[in-house]
Amino acid sequence: MEDQAEKLREIMRKKPETAKEGEKNSRQAGLLTKKSSKTRIITITSGKGGVGKTNVSVNMALAYARLGKKVVVMDADLGLANVNIMLNMVPRFNLYDMIRKGKTMKEIMVETDYGISIVAGALGISQIANLSDEERQNFIEELNTLSFADIIIIDTSAGVSSNVLDFIAAADDAVIITTPEPTAITDAYGIIKIIATEYDNLDMELKLVVNRVKSAAEAKKVSDRMTNIAGQFLNLKVDYLGFIYDDPIVSQAVLRQRPFMVIDPKCKASICVQHIVGKMEKSDLRDSGGFTSMFMRLFKKN
């Protein structure tokens, strides 16, 4: 099982042309740079709902696309799919259709008008741990079709369910979204604490974005508080990735069901997101874990 998981991990994270070379060229593939040969998996999460997590996910995807990246956004908010709503889309199929009804990833993945693709979530996906052997194998094979992407952004549900923690553990970068509100800060710290408790040697980058701030000083105050507490009491490094202004364009974009980066690419919020993605691009990509490994762990639960 471990050998199979390792092979699947490599298949998933390599670009298609590299995967096709097989074992014969594996050493040559290993010589490729991380950024040219790997799919970067970014999980966006939060301690509580209503902090703008899905909005950040979608607009980060657009910012990456504008850098020439191939981007897939997977809606992992189990039971409350919001990514397609923000884009004013009604996908015909979703992850549940692929798992239970035999649809392929190609059939359920939808290309948008904004240069990104989305995979819609649905109620019932939490049953993934109960798949039959055949369903499991088919699902893993379908995941391989995502290897074309440079960036996979996973938009999780809010809170600290086991599903959320699995998505976090599978990521190269876990981005926690909070706001300056005391409840949001408390809940964000709560999810960081649970991550520190559940995973002793978590080989990943844990990052913080402060959303809906009035000023850079306000964001820094929140980030300093959280990063210092995490380091002092949890012995966990949390990198401050950046902030997003409380911009009226954002609420207008939500009402119009269009990304704010499309409504106004030069608004304060858009510039902030572009800065965050630019900072992400400068950070190294770890050489472990992977999207498929997350599902292998889910399968092992039963």
Outline of this structure?
Helices cover 48% and strands 16% of the residues. By secondary structure, the chain is an alpha/beta fold. It is globular, with a radius of gyration of 19 Å.
Architecture overview:
By secondary structure, this protein is an alpha/beta fold. 48% of the residues lie in helices and 16% in strands. It has one domain: P-loop containing nucleotide triphosphate hydrolases (Rossmann fold), CATH 3.40.50.300. Helix 11 (182-198) links the parallel strand 6 (173-178) and strand 7. Helix 5 packs across helix 15. The longest helix has 18 residues, at 216-233. 44% of the residues are buried.
Unreliable spans are 1-9, 16-37
Q: How many discrete domains?
A: 1
| Whole-angstrom Rg | 19 Å
Count of strand segments: 8
Cα separation of the termini: 14 Å
* Biggest sheet layout: 8 strands, mixed
Number of helices: 16
Structural category is: alpha/beta
The percent of residues in helical segments reads: 40-55%
Q: Kindly provide the name of the CATH class.
A: Alpha Beta
CATH homologous superfamily assignment: P-loop containing nucleotide triphosphate hydrolases
CATH topology: Rossmann fold
Strand arrangement, largest sheet?
Answer: 3-4-2-5-1-6-7-8
Order of helices and strands: HHHHEHEHHHEEHEHEHEHEHHHH
What is the average per-residue confidence, as pLDDT, rounded to a whole number?
81
